[in-house]
């Protein structure tokens, strides 16, 4: 049932809000609304019960193991939430003067400093509101750098074919053409192909390392030399930073610019699809172009830098200073980890991934890159299962839901057929991983004996498999009162 | 170890199962010279008690203020139920609903949200959110240019929030889009429809129409929308969602209605929180839906014919279309939308309209109290929603400074962005203010200005 179907004309919550003193006052009639919007008329209890009920229809980290590859679904500490929601932080208006928010700005400044130290970059801006916006900012800085040198011939961004879709999409938003680079059979960037592609038209290369194939790019130093020798810049997509946190710094690998997904590595909540935060870090040559605002400190006082301080900045990405509440949550998490805790994140996420990979291999699953170490994630390919039993990665994913697990990422990266990209994260115990392996084993058995059970899965979820083709072909994107019989 | 559950015994068993002697061995594919950079600059770990003490201290230091700030972010009362439900782990710690059957809670909520936003704007469809209002406006500009196909010019009134205009420039500049600024009437405080006529000749993809505008003033939206359409341009409405409970919705502007509506969703149950996270919203006519950026949820049926919800029209998106996507957006502002949906459900149409009327009435009352002070006037004659520009007889910055000493954040100084307006101050009084608050504010302004005006009391305009 939809909230609109619970609605009854005239039902109101009079307790929450002040009654309005008078009518629309001085607003001329031609500006006024004549028909009220279709919002529900429900009691507070109706609303609380309805949305609590909906929450029960979600799988989440708090309720289920959620090994969604490349999304780093680790436990979100409750302290981060509680402390970011202290009343003074929540009430502060973004345009309030800097001297009324020194406590808040101190957190942001220290977060900038910690991200700088962790990444090995010279300066960090917290402005981007998601990973993709960080990518946009990073590529826009690459462009601003080349433009500032009058180097207008560089019109291409190189992107490995295993990259997230956001990489090519971000490059295009910055006015660049995208050139894809192939992957070799070991899951590394094909360096021969790269060397052919790179040249005077190359603005930069966007690289995720460890890659979305779940392996560390072994030729990183060779790649760095090739791109820089051609005059291009090197962009680090921080999607998989969790795997190397405290172990290897993007700055040490020679990257010029990076973005960091705080909602992945630094455990801020994914919120059913956001908010995220995608701070960007740069080396000295890109520093003048960083997006605004930045937090500066002088003699213990903090202030936000603006256009007057940074005339070469690419500008602002949002009306305010970024996703402040996400930044506070990440700050709390980082302070609770400390330097040692950060290294342990990489160590135990890697341990968990390699353990799970080893156990699934023993259980009879085919690993896409069996000769490689897993980073914090790895890929299982079900190509053989599809050929032999007609069962697809989608079917296995749906069956996992029945067994009480959220599914791994499916059909990404695009170059591995019938793939599951599995990322357990460091916050899961051996016992949870063992239970997952047991479920996968059962599913493998079912695939061979009762494949139909998988092809019609899920069976135990609030709804059965949904008709996505119909959803796209006959879009029904809003509820209309005439539909109310359902 | 914080948030890591492994026992010594677990670790030994896991290493044995992998066939390595140590965790360190698992990193052996990483070139040795890259490994092990020191983490200087990361302080030692704090436990929960210690970080709580630190954060509480900082929050208390920042304190609480009586605020009359608006300018795109607004203080509203948020019912307690909103965030208690939104921060339930099932909403808080889930991700984008890629596995629809395991995400029906979030998906149905988003479908309800889309319905609410489409209805508030009187347009056919809405997406599941963008980052914030300013970036949503930039996406609307890009969308209009895609839909228009032949022009890359977009007309942008000077009455749109100056920072938002800068954000749009940052986001669209590398795609060769030209933003043409439209002047405003310095008496009425809104865009002059005649300003469009002066641009005759050159085609435009879109006209942005803010309602209310940055000054709080209502724009002649019907005329602007019709004039945009007469020129073959799309009309992009930039609206405040609380105001929409009271004001004519974009879908009804002019003879055909606006084509796209965007805005900042923060006033719908999202705390000010120093600027974020907020949520941008976007709605449009159904003919444009395949040009819309961001996630969209659709209703469909499951294998047993039951109603269910799923992400749809994904062929627009980066994870399918890569370099040909409508936008690079992936993660959006799902949790804020969760709060906004619960907030709108709790308020309903009548309460939301009452909040809008209360904001309007309070701001009118504040403006008239301020205008009763010698030398203080309303800067514009145009009708307003819940913000007003006041012209002071003395520079604004010192007045704000003096108000701050009284625990009051008195509004926005417009000197930098609109120097032509003189000593102009943008104030806002939402439903959170009562008569005492307004009287206190006006009383302090009168005292401060009275004190400052005396030495400068001459026939000449005081110099800043």
Q: Brief description of this entry?
A:
The complex is a heterodimer of chains A (486) and B (464). Chain A is an alpha/beta fold and 486 residues long.
Tell me about this structure.
The complex is a heterodimer of chains A (486) and B (464). Chain A is α/β, with parallel strands linked by helices and 486 residues long. Chain A has 15 helices and 13 strands. Chain A folds into three domains: 3-55, no CATH class; 79-337, Type I PLP-dependent aspartate aminotransferase-like (Major domain) (Aspartate Aminotransferase, domain 2), CATH 3.40.640; 344-471, Aspartate Aminotransferase, domain 1 (Alpha-Beta Complex), CATH 3.90.1150.10. In chain A, strands 1-7-6-5-4-2-3 form a seven-stranded mixed sheet, with helices on both faces. Chain A has a four-stranded antiparallel sheet with strand order 10-11-13-12, with helices on one face. Chain A is globular and about 70 Å long. The mean pLDDT of chain A is 95. Chain B is built from 13 helices and 15 strands. Chain B has helices at residues 8-18, 48-62, 80-86, 89-92, 104-121, 133-148, 162-172, 193-197, 221-230, 318-321, 334-371, 396-404, 435-453; strands at residues 66-67, 125-126, 153-157, 178-182, 206-211, 234-239, 260-264, 280-284, 297-301, 307-311, 377-378, 387-391, 408-409, 412-413, 424-428. A seven-stranded mixed sheet of chain B has the order 2-8-7-6-5-3-4, with helices on both faces. A four-stranded antiparallel sheet of chain B has the order 11-12-15-14, with helices on one face. Chain B has a two-stranded parallel sheet with strand order 1-13. In chain B, helix 3 (80-86) packs antiparallel against helix 11 (334-371) and helix 6 (133-148) packs across helix 7 (162-172). The longest helix of chain B has 38 residues, at 334-371. Chain B is globular. The interface between A and B is large, with 203 and 203 residues.
What attributes characterize this protein structure?
heterodimer; A: 486 residues; alpha/beta; Aspartate Aminotransferase, domain 2; Aspartate Aminotransferase, domain 1; 3 domains; four-stranded antiparallel β-sheet; 15 helices; B: 464 residues; seven-stranded mixed β-sheet; 15 strands
